[in-house]
Specification:
Blueprint lengths: L6 H6 L3 E5 L10 H8 L4 E5 L5 E2 L2 E4 L11 E4 L6 H10 L4 E4 L9 H15 L4 E3 L5 E4 L4 E2 L12 E5 L3 H9 L5 E4 L8 H9 L6 E6 L5 H12 L4 E5 L4 H11 L6 H11 L2 E3 L2 H13 L7 E6 L2 H12 L5 E2 L4 H10 L10 E2 L1 H7 L1 H14 L5 E7 L5 H17 L4 E6 L3 H9 L5 E3 L2 H22 L1
Parallel strand pairs: 1-2, 1-5, 2-4, 5-6, 6-7, 10-11, 10-12, 12-13, 13-14, 15-16, 15-17, 15-18, 18-19, 19-20
Antiparallel strand pairs: 3-4, 8-9, 8-11
Helix pairs in contact: 3-4, 6-7, 7-9, 10-17, 11-17, 12-14, 13-14, 14-15
Length: about 450
């Protein structure tokens, strides 16, 4: 009998999953091992040509011998067998299929023919295939994953769509966790556009990160992206821009990259935030997750170093729309109260002379509080010391920044300098409503992305 569940739920929230070609042991590179570790509450059935039991689960030799209604099949059997296995799946009315194997359009001519056979077999009775060459799906909220790579489960508001499983792993470890993820792999059937529509409709996902090597359904993808951006930020890293990158994308997933200039304009018009490097994606995504929205483009800086202020100003100049804030009278007065008479008060707010006179915590509290309360300021970038000699003082400044950021509805970012900065960033990473960054350029990139998105949303309301 045909399964009546929505296609998205068949892939992301299956009640019963069949693992076809699963290894005999649920080791560190096994989807069964991940399901067991994650505590998946649905039914698991196994198909193996020889084993009759794996890790306490009964196994059958043929898909046709599976019991009852199966929502999703995950296939990792040898590539030559995959078209036949898919035919068995659709004969049993299994509409959702994940093929994890490599060796299809990402490989040789035989692989390309096999991939075409996969699509033909699945469409014969209305099946849909995710992959091949994929980790499949991750749904931390549902305690479900098809990934054979070991992942930690965290119910994060980050959703990831990618054409390379490394971005799933990266998000799980470096973007503050992964709530929902779809690796389309070669994208022979289910593609970026499908996955984007799925994640846009999931309320638990607050920001979507996309890695794309090629976008074959350009117009549909842009239209879907526009609708998604009306609900939540969408950040995209489009690779394969150079001739060398295009050739590598073709061999990696069989993707073909189009005219990048046309794509760039379309992405921008649709509201998607484009980044150019993987580390930028991590920072921007974390900025959307942790920080409040930007209500305007004006940025203040609280710093120990005048040179750092110049670096930030230069970086802001390359981010369209950002501008240094002209401080109001309250912030100017706060600066004058903690500074010697010869020290000019302005933005960047250089507080080092005040620290020498009043100490770290008092100076930082007075200055940062005034900046956050200033109606002329929309976001604040802080510079904090991370030097062994100032260990106690450095911790005091972090606590002050955390406390004031918690009470504010404005984004607060912190850049540490000194040999202890890694420890300081790690400590700050556990806090909400404040973001630690590895450089002032990255601070500007995050704020530029946030303001670009908010400005686009405001334009849609006109």
């Amino acid at each position: 009998m045909k399964n009546s569940m929505d296609l998205k739920d068949l892939f992301l929230k299956p009640r019963c999953v069949a693992l076809v070609g699963v290894p005999r042991e649920a080791g560190p590179l096994s989807p069964l091992g991940n399901l067991l570790r994650w505590g998946y509450e649905g039914k698991v059935q196994l198909v193996h040509p020889h084993a009759r039991e794996i890790e306490g689960f009964p196994a059958v030799p043929e898909v046709s011998m599976l019991e009852g209604e199966v929502d999703l099949a995950v296939i990792s059997s040898p590539r030559e067998t995959v078209p036949g296995v898919i035919s068995q799946c659709v004969d049993k009315w299994i509409r959702a299929i994940v093929v994890t194997n490599q060796g299809f359009a990402d490989a040789d001519p035989l692989g390309k023919r096999l991939q075409e056979a996969i699509v033909m077999a699945s469409r014969a009775k209305g099946g849909r295939v995710l992959g091949p060459n994929t980790l499949g799906v991750v749904n931390s909220f549902f305690r479900f994953t098809t990934s054979f790579m070991p992942l930690e489960r965290e119910e994060s508001p980050v959703g990831v769509i990618c054409q390379s499983g490394i971005f799933v792993v990266d998000a799980a470890h470096l973007m503050g966790g992964l709530g929902l993820g779809v690796d389309v792999g070669n994208g022979c059937d289910v593609g970026l556009t499908d996955a984007l529509e799925w994640l846009a409709g999931e309320e638990q996902v607050k920001v979507i990160a996309i890695h794309a090597e090629g976008i074959p359904q350009g117009r549909q993808f842009i239209e879907t992206g526009f609708r998604a951006c009306l609900k939540k930020p969408v950040v995209i890293l489009k690779t394969g821009r150079s001739p060398q990158g295009m050739r590598a994308a073709l061999s990696h997933t069989g993707s073909i990259s189009g005219d990048d200039r046309l794509l760039h304009g379309a992405l921008r018009k649709a509201g998607l935030i484009r980044v150019w490097r993987s580390d930028e994606m991590r920072d921007v995504v974390r900025g959307f997750v942790k920080l409040p929205p930007m209500r305007g483009p004006k940025v203040a800086m609280v710093t120990f170093t005048g040179g750092g202020g110049i670096i930030l100003l230069d970086a802001m100049a390359s981010e369209e729309g950002l501008e240094p804030a002209n401080l109001g009278s309250g912030a100017i007065q706060a600066m004058r109260e903690i500074s010697p008479p010869w020290m000019p008060a302005g933005n960047p707010m250089d507080i080092w002379p005040g620290v020498m006179k009043h100490g770290m915590a008092k100076t930082y509290r007075s200055t940062l509080k005034a900046a956050l309360e200033d109606p002329q300021v929309d976001a604040v970038v802080c510079v904090a010391l991370a030097l062994p000699a100032y260990c106690g003082s450095q911790l005091d400044s972090v606590e002050v920044i955390r406390e004031l950021a918690e009470k504010s509805q404005k984004p607060v970012l912190v850049w540490f300098y000194g040999p202890e900065k890694e420890e300081a960033l790690h400590r700050l990473d556990r806090e909400e409503k404040v973001l630690g960054v590895e450089s002032l350029e990255k601070a500007a990139k995050v704020l530029g992305a946030k303001w670009s998105y908010e400005r686009w949303r405001l334009a849609q309301q006109d």
